Amino acid sequence: MLKEELENIFELNEMQKEAYKNQGKNLVFNAPTGSGKTEAVLLSIPEGKTVSFLLPTITSSIFMYRRLKENGFFNLDLKTSILKEIETVRRPALNIEIHTPDAPLLDYMKTGKQTLNDVVVMDELDNYPPMVKTVLIDYIKNNPNTQFLVASATLDNNLKEAFKDFEKIEYNTDIDLLKFKTEEFYSNDYPDDEDYENFADILNNVPKDGKIGFIFNCIDNMENFADTYSKIFYDENGELKDGVIMHHSNVDVDTRNKNEEKLFNGDYKICISNDIISYSVDISFDTMFMEPSDRTATNIQRLGRCNRYNKEIGGRTNLYIMPDLYTPPFMDGWDKREEHEKFSDQKFYYTDIEKMREKLPLEPIPSLEKVNNFIRNRIKMGLEPSLREIPVTFEITKEVKEYNPKTKSEEKAIKKFHIKPIGDELPYAEYPVRPVMDERGQIQELKKDLVHIQKRRVCDDYFIMLDNKVPVKTERIGEEKYDQIKMDEEALNFSIEDLNKLKTFTDSATDVYNEIESKLDKFEISDEKKENLKQEFFTTFLNEVVEEKIQDNKINRIHQILENKLDEFIEEWRKVPFEKISNFTQTFNDLIYYGKIESENKEKNSFLGKAKDYKKYIQSDNFKEKLNSFIKNNLISKYGKLPEKKKEKINGNEKKMNKVR
User: Fold this and answer.
1) What digits encode the pLDDT tens for the residues 231-268?
2) What is the pLDDT of residues 513-571, one digit of tens each?
3) CA distance 443 to 585
4) What are the beta bridge partners of residue 446?
5) Which residues lie closer than 8 Å to 167 by C-beta, 6 or more apart?
6) Contacts of 291 (CB under 8 A, 6+ apart)
7) Radius of gyration of the CA atoms of the chain, in A
8) Closest CA relative to residue 316, chosen from 213, 201, 229, 209
9) Of 54, 303, 531, 642, which is least packed with CB atoms within 10 Å of its CB?
């Protein structure tokens, strides 16, 4: 029935005819956007079957639902977090459930049972997260009675290898038309009349009923660009002009649904968006402005939104590359630059894009064991199970001056920002493991923590803060590509007894620091000088007194680490306390990192047996007398005498004054 219905609408191409001949088989459709591969996929499914139609994003799921609903040939069940809808018809060719793959695959990981229908369509498979691909490949191996269909415009050789036993259906064409003519477009942060005129000329050169699209790398760039050219996109009230859509994941659900309905119906002139529209979204821009991604596959997907139906463009430029915008932290700046050079000031014929697809680099797919470990670690840390590396960020608020298009002036606003690392300074957890304490202050267990160690190259500069709409990619230490893998592997193998012995050392050193602080508080010393003296006295006293008494290089190493930590606190983080748990955490992780202790190496860990003696010595009256004498002698050496606090008389009584110099 479906074949006849489609033939009443259009003539089937060779790929679609071939698909119909291979009904019920496992197939791979490797075909470009706009080639009719969705119809080919549906034609390869026996009539009356129930289908799980998987797509990489919520937006692509909703678009596919609207597209299939318009045909009227199928019973449909859309299952997304922002829109759920059921459509039934009198004589359905197929029953189709449309959703992202995550939830049923997580159920499969938990139960090992079949969690998808008897036919599974994996549309735009190459754009699924790596862990989703891993679980899907395992699901296919363990469900031999299910029909699996793979459809993609950019299937790399790695995925082709994974489905080598599937029959291949390629899209063959003799078309060799000029598909894109590209130019660079550089935006000006403060455009003058000439800039506006040049930009307007480009937009006015689009055919009368043509569509104009902008695809950016991140929401910040999208919004900043629209604000920069506000006269083009906004009316006098600061609202988007009629026919202009700004579409991204941060718009509210109602606006998002309205935007997608307008895009589906073609009820717009200009669409400003990001990759939310790049996958399985059937829209075609006559002219497109594109920021280059750092991935060729992503750029090919974006190109699929421009001149989708292969119209003759003559000598008109229809693709503008925008290379000069901010590179977000989840992208590699050098790779982005290479992609920019690949696409700028070029003419691309249909076959050029096909050749580019064939040379796509392999994308690593993690092992199933790694996926299981990732899920277990998330659960252990109190997080929801997931097959996607969800960004973890820390927010601060700050008063900023922001341009208001409604008033056409800069106004003060309170905004939230993500903290982004500069160089090696990380605002996330600094170490891969942290202790969990009981009521007595003893270590119960170690837990893995989340840290940011993704060091991406950025061409232009580092930024201290990013608007909260820019995703900041974070990763856990423990991946094979990082040297620190030994840290969490080693750390979790230590006995609780040895951990508490080490904490005895670090707690004792902290007590020394706190004792120095309390002694200095009794003298008239400015706050700034006091902070410097605490560091100096702590370091010197440990070297001259403690390390002379207890001759042990391993214990000295602990002191050195603690001293380095003090440097960081006093020079950079004045309000951060010298606190026992944080000192243990840093010392423990550093000792592992530098190979000073090992979980099952009794020789290296032998000094831990001296923990009680060390604590006893630190708490002894003899030690405290030496510390007190040390502080007084050093103060006299610096000031010529002890800087005693001055006293003043109030109603005949003496009262100490502490003046801050």
Assistant:
1) 999 998 889 999 999 998 888 888 988 999 999 899 99
2) 888 888 888 888 887 788 778 778 877 776 666 656 556 666 666 666 665 555 554 44
3) 11
4) 435
5) 22, 25, 26, 27, 28
6) 215, 216, 217, 221, 321, 322, 323, 325
7) 32
8) 201
9) 642
